[in-house]
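Inverse folding, one chain.
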């Protein structure tokens, strides 16, 4: 994909569900975003069983990967058939040269859940940002940023970070920033 809004974009209308999608063996060059999955309160529907593998992203103008359940800002509401769900989404073997590495944003009443990254490299101005997320795993992920943490998480739970690395540690920012996070496990945490 050369230029365009996104390499692959799913949403924002999700009421009919999106399930069992594979995105593989792609090159995105000069797109606004690489992979973007978006919805908002009131749309309902389930996005699940998505596999993204063997992707190269270059010159991405915003985020390489976006999972956003607040595509349009709406007021919180009780859980119902109007509440969207994102779960079981796997990213592997990805290299991305981008402005922002990754943005995961769930809802207070429905976190994004069961997201994993395996063997992913981000060269970005800013790192991975997670908010209202649970059961998130990063395995052998490298994030090189120009500013801020490689990974930051807020209002999230059950996060596993295994073998996170950076080739460019910053003196004025932590590698990982956790705010209001429950049950986080960091393993093989080392720098080059």
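Residues assigned per position:
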């Amino acid at each position: 994909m050369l230029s365009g809004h996104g390499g692959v974009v799913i949403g924002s209308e999700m009421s009919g569900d999106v399930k069992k999608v594979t995105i593989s063996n792609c090159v995105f060059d000069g797109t606004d975003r690489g992979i973007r999955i978006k919805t908002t309160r009131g749309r309902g529907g389930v996005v699940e069983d998505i596999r993204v593998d063997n992707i190269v992203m270059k010159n991405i103008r915003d985020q390489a990967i976006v999972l956003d359940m607040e595509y349009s800002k709406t007021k919180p509401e009780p859980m119902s058939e109007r509440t969207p769900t994102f779960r079981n989404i796997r990213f592997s073997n990805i290299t991305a040269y981008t402005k922002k590495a990754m943005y995961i944003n769930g809802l207070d009443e429905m976190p994004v859940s069961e997201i994993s990254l395996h063997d992913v490299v981000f060269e970005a101005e800013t790192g991975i940002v997670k908010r209202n997320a649970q059961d998130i795993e990063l395995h052998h992920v490298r994030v090189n940023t120009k500013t801020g943490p490689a990974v930051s998480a807020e209002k999230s739970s059950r996060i596993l970070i295994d073998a996170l690395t950076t080739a460019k540690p910053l003196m004025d920012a932590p590698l990982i920033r956790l705010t209001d996070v429950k049950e986080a496990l960091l393993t093989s945490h080392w720098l080059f």
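The chain has a mean pLDDT of 93. The chain has no helices and nine strands.
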